[in-house]
Design a protein that fits this description.
The protein is mostly beta strands. The protein has one domain: Pemi-like Protein 1, Chain: D, CATH 2.10.260. Helices cover 12% and strands 30% of the residues. It has a two-stranded antiparallel sheet with strand order 1-2. The chain has a two-stranded antiparallel sheet with strand order 3-4. The termini are far apart.
Length: 60
Amino acid sequence: MKIDLDKVKCITETSITIRGSRRRITVPSEVVEILRLQDSDKLRWIIFKDGSIHINKVQK
């Protein structure tokens, strides 16, 4: 996947914690601030056949 860095606002990494049946992911604070995420907001995950992922905030 080619990325036009002129269009990129933030690149960051996060970690996934898997404990039994509960799977959690930590959303980096920069992403929370940029997307203005709040409790009960939803994120849509689109996974492509090449293994790349597109994540965006679901608009209410």
